[in-house]
Request: fold
Amino acid sequence: MFCLFFLFVTQSLCFAICTFFNKKKDTKRHITRIVLFIFSLMEQILFLILIFLSFAFSGRCSDVYSRNDFPKGFVFGSAVSAFQWEGAVDEDGRMPSIWDTYVHSSDGPTGDIACDGYHKYKEDVRLMYNMRLDAFRLSISWPRLIPSGRGPVNPKGLRFYKNLIDELMRYGIETHVTLYHNDLPQALEDEYGGWIDQKIINDFTAFADVCFREFGSKVKSWWTINEPNMLAWGGNCSRGNSSTEPYIALHNMLLAHASTARLYKQTYKDKQHGSVGITLFAYWMVPYTSSVEDKIATQRDKAFYLAWVLHPLVFGDYPDVMKRTVGERLPSFSKEESELVKGSSDFLGLIHYTTLYTAQLSTSVHAGDFDSDMNASLLRMLFFHGMCFDVLPWGLEGVLEYIEKNYGNLPVYILENGQPTNQHSSLNDVGRVDYLHAYIAAVLNSVRNGSDIRGYFQWSFMDMFEFINPNYTYGLYYVNFSDPKRERSLKTSALWYSALLKGKTVSLQKLKNRSMSSSPGVSCQ
Reply:
Protein backbone atom coordinates (compact mmCIF):
# COMPACT_ATOMS: atom_id res chain seq x y z
CA MET A 1 0.00 0.00 0.00
CA PHE A 2 2.84 2.37 0.80
CA CYS A 3 4.39 1.80 -2.61
CA LEU A 4 1.08 2.48 -4.37
CA PHE A 5 0.62 5.64 -2.30
CA PHE A 6 4.17 6.73 -3.18
CA LEU A 7 3.45 6.15 -6.85
CA PHE A 8 0.23 8.17 -6.67
CA VAL A 9 1.90 11.12 -4.92
CA THR A 10 4.81 11.19 -7.37
CA GLN A 11 2.54 11.09 -10.39
CA SER A 12 0.44 13.90 -8.90
CA LEU A 13 3.61 15.92 -8.39
CA CYS A 14 4.59 15.38 -12.02
CA PHE A 15 1.14 16.54 -13.15
CA ALA A 16 1.36 19.68 -11.01
CA ILE A 17 4.79 20.56 -12.38
CA CYS A 18 3.60 20.04 -15.93
CA THR A 19 0.62 22.31 -15.32
CA PHE A 20 2.85 24.99 -13.83
CA PHE A 21 5.34 25.00 -16.68
CA ASN A 22 2.66 24.88 -19.36
CA LYS A 23 1.61 28.35 -18.21
CA LYS A 24 5.08 29.68 -18.98
CA LYS A 25 5.70 29.70 -22.71
CA ASP A 26 9.45 30.27 -22.41
CA THR A 27 9.94 27.13 -20.37
CA LYS A 28 7.79 24.63 -22.26
CA ARG A 29 10.83 23.07 -23.85
CA HIS A 30 11.99 21.86 -20.40
CA ILE A 31 8.77 20.10 -19.50
CA THR A 32 9.53 16.76 -21.10
CA ARG A 33 13.02 16.61 -19.66
CA ILE A 34 11.84 17.39 -16.13
CA VAL A 35 8.96 14.93 -16.23
CA LEU A 36 11.18 12.14 -17.52
CA PHE A 37 13.72 12.85 -14.80
CA ILE A 38 11.06 12.68 -12.09
CA PHE A 39 9.60 9.45 -13.41
CA SER A 40 13.08 7.92 -13.59
CA LEU A 41 13.79 8.99 -10.03
CA MET A 42 10.42 7.65 -8.94
CA GLU A 43 11.15 4.27 -10.54
CA GLN A 44 14.52 3.90 -8.83
CA ILE A 45 13.18 4.87 -5.39
CA LEU A 46 10.19 2.58 -5.78
CA PHE A 47 12.47 -0.27 -6.86
CA LEU A 48 14.66 0.20 -3.79
CA ILE A 49 11.61 0.19 -1.52
CA LEU A 50 10.32 -3.02 -3.06
CA ILE A 51 13.71 -4.75 -2.70
CA PHE A 52 14.15 -3.88 0.95
CA LEU A 53 10.55 -4.59 1.89
CA SER A 54 10.64 -7.96 0.17
CA PHE A 55 13.80 -9.01 1.96
CA ALA A 56 12.66 -7.53 5.26
CA PHE A 57 9.54 -9.69 5.36
CA SER A 58 10.85 -12.90 3.80
CA GLY A 59 13.05 -15.23 5.84
CA ARG A 60 13.63 -12.77 8.67
CA CYS A 61 16.35 -13.84 11.07
CA SER A 62 15.44 -14.79 14.61
CA ASP A 63 16.74 -12.63 17.44
CA VAL A 64 17.05 -15.64 19.74
CA TYR A 65 18.64 -19.03 18.99
CA SER A 66 21.23 -21.47 20.31
CA ARG A 67 23.61 -23.99 18.81
CA ASN A 68 21.10 -26.68 19.76
CA ASP A 69 18.92 -25.36 16.92
CA PHE A 70 21.57 -26.55 14.45
CA PRO A 71 21.90 -30.15 13.24
CA LYS A 72 23.92 -32.64 15.25
CA GLY A 73 27.54 -32.51 14.12
CA PHE A 74 27.33 -28.93 12.84
CA VAL A 75 30.77 -27.38 13.32
CA PHE A 76 31.39 -23.90 14.71
CA GLY A 77 34.90 -22.54 14.28
CA SER A 78 37.14 -19.62 13.49
CA ALA A 79 40.14 -19.13 11.24
CA VAL A 80 43.45 -17.46 10.44
CA SER A 81 45.90 -17.58 7.55
CA ALA A 82 49.60 -18.31 7.87
CA PHE A 83 51.02 -15.04 6.54
CA GLN A 84 48.60 -12.89 8.53
CA TRP A 85 49.04 -14.76 11.83
CA GLU A 86 52.40 -16.54 12.09
CA GLY A 87 55.05 -13.87 11.61
CA ALA A 88 58.60 -15.25 11.94
CA VAL A 89 59.09 -14.70 8.23
CA ASP A 90 62.86 -15.20 8.29
CA GLU A 91 63.13 -17.80 11.06
CA ASP A 92 63.88 -21.51 10.96
CA GLY A 93 64.44 -21.81 7.24
CA ARG A 94 61.35 -20.05 5.90
CA MET A 95 61.93 -18.25 2.60
CA PRO A 96 60.04 -15.24 1.17
CA SER A 97 56.57 -15.49 -0.33
CA ILE A 98 55.09 -13.12 -2.88
CA TRP A 99 53.36 -11.31 -0.01
CA ASP A 100 56.69 -10.65 1.69
CA THR A 101 57.94 -9.10 -1.53
CA TYR A 102 54.79 -7.05 -2.01
CA VAL A 103 54.52 -5.55 1.49
CA HIS A 104 58.23 -4.72 1.53
CA SER A 105 57.92 -2.82 -1.75
CA SER A 106 56.62 0.21 0.20
CA ASP A 107 57.12 1.79 3.61
CA GLY A 108 53.84 0.46 5.03
CA PRO A 109 53.15 -2.27 7.58
CA THR A 110 54.43 -5.79 6.97
CA GLY A 111 53.66 -9.29 8.16
CA ASP A 112 57.16 -9.84 9.53
CA ILE A 113 55.84 -10.37 13.06
CA ALA A 114 52.07 -10.25 12.48
CA CYS A 115 50.41 -11.88 15.54
CA ASP A 116 53.58 -13.86 16.29
CA GLY A 117 51.50 -17.02 16.13
CA TYR A 118 54.64 -18.98 15.32
CA HIS A 119 55.76 -18.46 18.92
CA LYS A 120 52.41 -17.93 20.66
CA TYR A 121 50.36 -20.77 19.18
CA LYS A 122 49.98 -22.61 22.48
CA GLU A 123 48.53 -19.51 24.11
CA ASP A 124 46.16 -19.06 21.17
CA VAL A 125 44.97 -22.66 21.26
CA ARG A 126 44.11 -22.24 24.95
CA LEU A 127 42.03 -19.19 24.02
CA MET A 128 40.24 -21.30 21.40
CA TYR A 129 39.54 -23.96 24.00
CA ASN A 130 38.22 -21.40 26.47
CA MET A 131 35.86 -20.17 23.77
CA ARG A 132 34.88 -23.79 23.03
CA LEU A 133 35.66 -23.73 19.32
CA ASP A 134 34.75 -27.00 17.63
CA ALA A 135 37.24 -26.40 14.84
CA PHE A 136 40.03 -24.11 13.71
CA ARG A 137 40.97 -23.41 10.10
CA LEU A 138 44.63 -22.65 9.49
CA SER A 139 46.76 -22.52 6.38
CA ILE A 140 50.13 -24.11 5.68
CA SER A 141 52.80 -21.67 4.59
CA TRP A 142 54.25 -23.20 1.44
CA PRO A 143 57.55 -21.24 1.75
CA ARG A 144 57.90 -22.40 5.37
CA LEU A 145 57.32 -26.08 4.61
CA ILE A 146 59.10 -26.23 1.22
CA PRO A 147 61.08 -22.97 1.09
CA SER A 148 62.03 -23.09 -2.59
CA GLY A 149 58.57 -24.19 -3.70
CA ARG A 150 59.81 -27.64 -4.65
CA GLY A 151 62.49 -29.95 -3.36
CA PRO A 152 63.55 -30.61 0.25
CA VAL A 153 61.10 -30.23 3.12
CA ASN A 154 62.13 -27.82 5.88
CA PRO A 155 62.25 -29.96 9.05
CA LYS A 156 61.66 -27.01 11.38
CA GLY A 157 58.65 -25.89 9.38
CA LEU A 158 57.33 -29.44 9.41
CA ARG A 159 57.80 -29.64 13.18
CA PHE A 160 55.93 -26.36 13.74
CA TYR A 161 52.81 -27.55 11.95
CA LYS A 162 52.90 -30.95 13.62
CA ASN A 163 53.16 -29.25 17.00
CA LEU A 164 50.31 -26.88 16.17
CA ILE A 165 48.00 -29.67 15.01
CA ASP A 166 48.92 -31.80 18.03
CA GLU A 167 48.13 -28.88 20.35
CA LEU A 168 44.72 -28.44 18.73
CA MET A 169 44.03 -32.16 19.11
CA ARG A 170 45.08 -32.06 22.76
CA TYR A 171 42.29 -29.57 23.41
CA GLY A 172 39.76 -31.44 21.29
CA ILE A 173 39.71 -28.89 18.46
CA GLU A 174 39.24 -30.21 14.92
CA THR A 175 41.79 -28.95 12.39
CA HIS A 176 40.76 -27.72 8.95
CA VAL A 177 43.72 -26.99 6.66
CA THR A 178 43.91 -24.62 3.72
CA LEU A 179 46.85 -25.58 1.53
CA TYR A 180 47.17 -22.25 -0.26
CA HIS A 181 46.17 -18.89 1.19
CA ASN A 182 47.88 -16.47 -1.19
CA ASP A 183 51.49 -16.99 -0.04
CA LEU A 184 53.18 -18.44 -3.12
CA PRO A 185 56.93 -19.04 -2.71
CA GLN A 186 58.70 -16.12 -4.35
CA ALA A 187 61.10 -18.60 -5.93
CA LEU A 188 58.30 -20.02 -8.11
CA GLU A 189 57.05 -16.56 -9.03
CA ASP A 190 60.56 -15.63 -10.13
CA GLU A 191 61.10 -18.88 -12.02
CA TYR A 192 57.95 -19.07 -14.13
CA GLY A 193 55.35 -16.52 -12.98
CA GLY A 194 53.45 -18.64 -10.50
CA TRP A 195 49.83 -19.40 -11.32
CA ILE A 196 49.99 -18.25 -14.94
CA ASP A 197 52.22 -21.19 -15.87
CA GLN A 198 51.06 -24.81 -15.89
CA LYS A 199 54.28 -25.89 -14.19
CA ILE A 200 52.64 -24.87 -10.94
CA ILE A 201 50.15 -27.73 -11.18
CA ASN A 202 52.82 -30.35 -10.51
CA ASP A 203 54.58 -28.21 -7.91
CA PHE A 204 51.36 -27.57 -6.00
CA THR A 205 50.39 -31.24 -6.14
CA ALA A 206 53.82 -32.21 -4.77
CA PHE A 207 53.43 -29.67 -1.94
CA ALA A 208 49.98 -31.10 -1.15
CA ASP A 209 51.45 -34.61 -1.19
CA VAL A 210 53.83 -33.66 1.61
CA CYS A 211 50.96 -32.18 3.63
CA PHE A 212 48.74 -35.22 3.17
CA ARG A 213 51.55 -37.59 4.06
CA GLU A 214 52.76 -35.71 7.12
CA PHE A 215 49.52 -34.34 8.59
CA GLY A 216 46.76 -36.44 7.07
CA SER A 217 46.39 -38.89 9.93
CA LYS A 218 45.18 -35.98 12.08
CA VAL A 219 43.51 -33.72 9.49
CA LYS A 220 40.27 -34.80 7.84
CA SER A 221 39.17 -31.60 6.11
CA TRP A 222 41.41 -30.14 3.40
CA TRP A 223 40.84 -26.97 1.39
CA THR A 224 43.10 -26.65 -1.63
CA ILE A 225 43.03 -22.99 -2.68
CA ASN A 226 41.50 -20.01 -0.91
CA GLU A 227 39.03 -18.00 -3.03
CA PRO A 228 40.62 -18.71 -6.44
CA ASN A 229 38.12 -16.46 -8.24
CA MET A 230 39.22 -13.34 -6.34
CA LEU A 231 42.86 -14.42 -6.36
CA ALA A 232 42.88 -14.81 -10.14
CA TRP A 233 40.95 -11.61 -10.79
CA GLY A 234 42.75 -9.34 -8.33
CA GLY A 235 46.26 -10.72 -8.00
CA ASN A 236 47.56 -12.34 -11.18
CA CYS A 237 48.78 -10.12 -13.97
CA SER A 238 52.53 -10.36 -13.58
CA ARG A 239 53.20 -10.39 -17.32
CA GLY A 240 51.00 -7.37 -17.93
CA ASN A 241 48.24 -8.90 -20.06
CA SER A 242 45.01 -8.44 -18.11
CA SER A 243 42.97 -9.71 -21.05
CA THR A 244 44.20 -13.28 -20.54
CA GLU A 245 46.14 -13.77 -17.31
CA PRO A 246 43.22 -13.85 -14.83
CA TYR A 247 41.58 -16.57 -16.94
CA ILE A 248 44.81 -18.54 -17.25
CA ALA A 249 45.53 -18.29 -13.52
CA LEU A 250 42.06 -19.52 -12.54
CA HIS A 251 42.28 -22.33 -15.08
CA ASN A 252 45.57 -23.52 -13.59
CA MET A 253 44.15 -23.24 -10.06
CA LEU A 254 41.23 -25.47 -10.99
CA LEU A 255 43.58 -28.02 -12.56
CA ALA A 256 45.89 -27.89 -9.53
CA HIS A 257 42.93 -28.38 -7.22
CA ALA A 258 41.66 -31.32 -9.27
CA SER A 259 45.12 -32.89 -9.48
CA THR A 260 45.47 -32.60 -5.71
CA ALA A 261 42.01 -34.05 -5.09
CA ARG A 262 42.80 -36.99 -7.36
CA LEU A 263 46.05 -37.62 -5.50
CA TYR A 264 44.24 -37.68 -2.17
CA LYS A 265 41.51 -40.02 -3.38
CA GLN A 266 43.94 -42.42 -5.02
CA THR A 267 46.63 -42.48 -2.35
CA TYR A 268 45.32 -41.34 1.02
CA LYS A 269 41.55 -41.40 1.33
CA ASP A 270 41.18 -45.11 2.14
CA LYS A 271 43.72 -44.79 4.96
CA GLN A 272 42.96 -41.33 6.30
CA HIS A 273 39.22 -41.03 5.56
CA GLY A 274 39.36 -37.31 4.88
CA SER A 275 37.84 -35.02 2.26
CA VAL A 276 39.10 -32.34 -0.12
CA GLY A 277 37.29 -29.17 -1.12
CA ILE A 278 37.87 -25.71 -2.54
CA THR A 279 36.63 -22.27 -1.50
CA LEU A 280 34.68 -19.62 -3.37
CA PHE A 281 34.52 -15.90 -2.68
CA ALA A 282 30.84 -15.08 -3.00
CA TYR A 283 29.31 -11.64 -2.88
CA TRP A 284 25.59 -11.75 -3.47
CA MET A 285 24.42 -9.37 -6.19
CA VAL A 286 21.08 -7.70 -6.90
CA PRO A 287 20.15 -5.33 -9.76
CA TYR A 288 20.71 -1.64 -9.09
CA THR A 289 17.45 -0.75 -10.80
CA SER A 290 14.50 -2.67 -12.21
CA SER A 291 15.79 -2.13 -15.75
CA VAL A 292 16.24 -5.12 -18.02
CA GLU A 293 19.87 -4.08 -18.55
CA ASP A 294 20.70 -4.20 -14.83
CA LYS A 295 18.94 -7.54 -14.41
CA ILE A 296 20.94 -9.04 -17.27
CA ALA A 297 24.14 -7.49 -15.89
CA THR A 298 23.44 -9.13 -12.52
CA GLN A 299 23.12 -12.56 -14.10
CA ARG A 300 26.33 -11.96 -16.04
CA ASP A 301 28.11 -10.92 -12.83
CA LYS A 302 27.06 -14.14 -11.14
CA ALA A 303 28.46 -16.10 -14.06
CA PHE A 304 31.81 -14.28 -13.98
CA TYR A 305 32.22 -14.35 -10.19
CA LEU A 306 30.49 -17.53 -9.07
CA ALA A 307 29.87 -19.86 -12.02
CA TRP A 308 33.44 -19.26 -13.19
CA VAL A 309 34.44 -21.75 -10.48
CA LEU A 310 31.23 -23.65 -9.82
CA HIS A 311 30.43 -24.61 -13.41
CA PRO A 312 33.70 -26.49 -14.04
CA LEU A 313 33.49 -28.20 -10.64
CA VAL A 314 29.99 -29.53 -11.35
CA PHE A 315 29.78 -29.74 -15.17
CA GLY A 316 33.42 -29.81 -16.28
CA ASP A 317 33.35 -26.59 -18.32
CA TYR A 318 32.96 -22.83 -18.06
CA PRO A 319 29.50 -21.21 -18.31
CA ASP A 320 28.29 -20.45 -21.82
CA VAL A 321 28.08 -16.69 -21.26
CA MET A 322 31.80 -16.61 -20.43
CA LYS A 323 32.71 -18.69 -23.47
CA ARG A 324 30.68 -16.40 -25.73
CA THR A 325 32.03 -13.20 -24.20
CA VAL A 326 35.69 -14.05 -23.66
CA GLY A 327 36.11 -16.25 -26.72
CA GLU A 328 39.57 -17.61 -27.44
CA ARG A 329 41.07 -15.74 -24.49
CA LEU A 330 39.30 -18.19 -22.18
CA PRO A 331 41.30 -21.42 -21.79
CA SER A 332 39.49 -24.61 -22.67
CA PHE A 333 39.49 -27.96 -20.92
CA SER A 334 40.54 -31.06 -22.76
CA LYS A 335 38.22 -34.04 -22.36
CA GLU A 336 40.58 -35.55 -19.81
CA GLU A 337 40.88 -32.26 -17.89
CA SER A 338 37.12 -31.79 -17.90
CA GLU A 339 36.62 -35.20 -16.34
CA LEU A 340 39.36 -34.48 -13.82
CA VAL A 341 37.83 -31.19 -12.64
CA LYS A 342 34.21 -32.34 -12.72
CA GLY A 343 33.20 -33.65 -9.31
CA SER A 344 36.66 -33.02 -7.84
CA SER A 345 35.40 -31.18 -4.76
CA ASP A 346 33.91 -33.19 -1.90
CA PHE A 347 32.48 -30.03 -0.42
CA LEU A 348 32.45 -26.28 -1.05
CA GLY A 349 33.77 -23.55 1.21
CA LEU A 350 31.94 -20.22 0.96
CA ILE A 351 33.55 -16.90 1.77
CA HIS A 352 30.79 -14.32 2.10
CA TYR A 353 30.76 -10.85 3.60
CA THR A 354 28.01 -8.73 2.08
CA THR A 355 25.71 -7.96 -0.86
CA LEU A 356 26.29 -5.46 -3.67
CA TYR A 357 24.27 -3.81 -6.38
CA THR A 358 25.03 -4.61 -10.01
CA ALA A 359 24.59 -2.01 -12.75
CA GLN A 360 25.13 -2.26 -16.49
CA LEU A 361 28.08 -0.16 -17.61
CA SER A 362 27.05 2.76 -19.78
CA THR A 363 30.24 2.88 -21.84
CA SER A 364 30.54 0.96 -25.08
CA VAL A 365 34.35 0.85 -24.90
CA HIS A 366 35.65 -2.70 -24.46
CA ALA A 367 39.19 -2.90 -23.10
CA GLY A 368 39.37 -6.67 -23.48
CA ASP A 369 40.03 -7.41 -19.80
CA PHE A 370 38.04 -9.21 -17.12
CA ASP A 371 36.15 -6.12 -15.95
CA SER A 372 35.08 -5.04 -19.41
CA ASP A 373 34.21 -8.64 -20.30
CA MET A 374 31.85 -8.64 -17.35
CA ASN A 375 30.57 -5.21 -18.48
CA ALA A 376 28.97 -4.36 -15.16
CA SER A 377 29.86 -2.41 -12.06
CA LEU A 378 29.44 -3.53 -8.47
CA LEU A 379 28.09 -0.81 -6.18
CA ARG A 380 27.89 -0.66 -2.43
CA MET A 381 24.52 -0.53 -0.73
CA LEU A 382 23.33 2.82 0.58
CA PHE A 383 24.27 2.19 4.19
CA PHE A 384 27.74 0.75 3.62
CA HIS A 385 30.09 2.77 5.86
CA GLY A 386 33.83 2.99 5.33
CA MET A 387 35.48 -0.43 5.43
CA CYS A 388 32.54 -2.00 7.26
CA PHE A 389 30.11 -4.32 5.52
CA ASP A 390 26.39 -3.80 5.29
CA VAL A 391 24.55 -6.26 7.51
CA LEU A 392 22.48 -7.97 4.82
CA PRO A 393 22.14 -11.61 5.91
CA TRP A 394 19.55 -12.36 3.23
CA GLY A 395 22.43 -12.10 0.76
CA LEU A 396 24.08 -15.19 2.23
CA GLU A 397 20.78 -17.02 1.91
CA GLY A 398 20.65 -15.83 -1.70
CA VAL A 399 24.07 -17.30 -2.47
CA LEU A 400 23.10 -20.64 -0.94
CA GLU A 401 19.82 -20.73 -2.87
CA TYR A 402 21.66 -19.89 -6.10
CA ILE A 403 24.10 -22.77 -5.58
CA GLU A 404 21.36 -25.24 -4.71
CA LYS A 405 19.20 -24.21 -7.67
CA ASN A 406 21.98 -24.27 -10.27
CA TYR A 407 24.47 -26.83 -8.97
CA GLY A 408 22.60 -29.14 -6.63
CA ASN A 409 22.61 -29.24 -2.87
CA LEU A 410 26.39 -29.38 -2.41
CA PRO A 411 27.78 -29.88 1.10
CA VAL A 412 28.86 -26.39 2.19
CA TYR A 413 30.95 -24.85 4.93
CA ILE A 414 30.82 -21.11 5.54
CA LEU A 415 34.58 -20.64 5.82
CA GLU A 416 34.84 -16.88 6.18
CA ASN A 417 32.24 -14.44 7.45
CA GLY A 418 32.97 -11.44 9.59
CA GLN A 419 32.89 -7.71 10.10
CA PRO A 420 35.93 -5.40 10.07
CA THR A 421 36.14 -2.59 12.59
CA ASN A 422 38.79 0.01 13.29
CA GLN A 423 41.66 -1.83 14.93
CA HIS A 424 41.94 0.80 17.66
CA SER A 425 38.24 1.14 18.44
CA SER A 426 36.52 -0.04 21.60
CA LEU A 427 36.75 -3.65 22.73
CA ASN A 428 32.98 -3.40 23.02
CA ASP A 429 32.52 -4.25 19.33
CA VAL A 430 28.73 -4.36 19.25
CA GLY A 431 28.77 -3.77 15.49
CA ARG A 432 30.54 -7.09 15.00
CA VAL A 433 28.07 -8.78 17.35
CA ASP A 434 25.17 -7.39 15.30
CA TYR A 435 26.76 -8.74 12.14
CA LEU A 436 27.59 -12.22 13.45
CA HIS A 437 24.23 -12.66 15.12
CA ALA A 438 22.38 -11.82 11.90
CA TYR A 439 24.51 -13.96 9.59
CA ILE A 440 24.54 -17.04 11.81
CA ALA A 441 20.76 -16.72 12.03
CA ALA A 442 20.71 -16.64 8.21
CA VAL A 443 22.75 -19.85 8.17
CA LEU A 444 20.16 -21.40 10.48
CA ASN A 445 17.36 -20.25 8.16
CA SER A 446 19.11 -21.87 5.20
CA VAL A 447 19.64 -25.11 7.11
CA ARG A 448 15.95 -25.19 7.96
CA ASN A 449 15.15 -24.58 4.29
CA GLY A 450 17.14 -27.63 3.26
CA SER A 451 20.66 -26.38 2.48
CA ASP A 452 23.36 -28.94 3.32
CA ILE A 453 25.52 -26.65 5.46
CA ARG A 454 28.04 -28.51 7.61
CA GLY A 455 29.72 -25.69 9.52
CA TYR A 456 30.37 -22.00 10.11
CA PHE A 457 33.81 -20.40 10.59
CA GLN A 458 33.93 -16.82 11.81
CA TRP A 459 36.68 -14.65 10.33
CA SER A 460 38.96 -14.07 12.09
CA PHE A 461 39.90 -15.50 15.46
CA MET A 462 42.05 -12.49 16.31
CA ASP A 463 43.13 -9.24 14.74
CA MET A 464 45.75 -10.01 12.11
CA PHE A 465 47.88 -8.27 9.55
CA GLU A 466 45.34 -7.23 6.91
CA PHE A 467 46.26 -6.99 3.25
CA ILE A 468 43.80 -4.30 2.13
CA ASN A 469 43.79 -1.91 5.09
CA PRO A 470 45.81 -2.77 8.22
CA ASN A 471 43.72 -0.32 10.26
CA TYR A 472 40.60 -2.49 9.91
CA THR A 473 40.62 -5.93 11.47
CA TYR A 474 38.15 -8.80 11.98
CA GLY A 475 39.25 -10.39 15.23
CA LEU A 476 37.30 -11.68 18.19
CA TYR A 477 40.47 -10.87 20.12
CA TYR A 478 42.29 -7.55 19.95
CA VAL A 479 46.03 -7.77 19.27
CA ASN A 480 48.24 -4.89 20.34
CA PHE A 481 50.59 -4.66 17.36
CA SER A 482 52.64 -1.91 19.04
CA ASP A 483 53.49 -4.29 21.88
CA PRO A 484 56.46 -6.60 21.13
CA LYS A 485 54.64 -9.30 23.12
CA ARG A 486 51.54 -8.95 20.91
CA GLU A 487 49.16 -9.06 23.87
CA ARG A 488 45.69 -10.47 23.13
CA SER A 489 42.54 -8.91 24.65
CA LEU A 490 39.00 -10.27 24.69
CA LYS A 491 36.29 -8.38 22.79
CA THR A 492 32.54 -8.38 23.35
CA SER A 493 32.14 -10.41 20.15
CA ALA A 494 34.31 -13.15 21.67
CA LEU A 495 31.99 -13.31 24.69
CA TRP A 496 28.95 -13.52 22.42
CA TYR A 497 30.43 -16.24 20.19
CA SER A 498 31.64 -18.19 23.20
CA ALA A 499 28.14 -18.08 24.72
CA LEU A 500 26.74 -19.51 21.49
CA LEU A 501 29.36 -22.26 21.34
CA LYS A 502 28.75 -23.22 24.97
CA GLY A 503 25.11 -23.93 24.16
CA LYS A 504 23.56 -20.83 25.64
CA THR A 505 20.61 -19.14 23.99
CA VAL A 506 22.01 -15.94 22.51
CA SER A 507 20.01 -12.76 22.34
CA LEU A 508 21.36 -9.64 20.76
CA GLN A 509 19.75 -7.31 23.27
CA LYS A 510 20.81 -9.30 26.34
CA LEU A 511 24.41 -9.31 25.15
CA LYS A 512 24.36 -5.55 24.65
CA ASN A 513 22.82 -4.99 28.08
CA ARG A 514 25.63 -6.84 29.84
CA SER A 515 28.52 -5.92 27.53
CA MET A 516 32.00 -5.99 29.01
CA SER A 517 32.48 -2.22 28.78
CA SER A 518 30.42 0.74 29.86
CA SER A 519 31.51 2.58 26.74
CA PRO A 520 28.94 2.83 23.95
CA GLY A 521 31.10 0.86 21.54
CA VAL A 522 31.30 1.44 17.83
CA SER A 523 29.56 -0.10 14.89
CA CYS A 524 32.36 0.81 12.51
CA GLN A 525 34.82 3.68 12.55
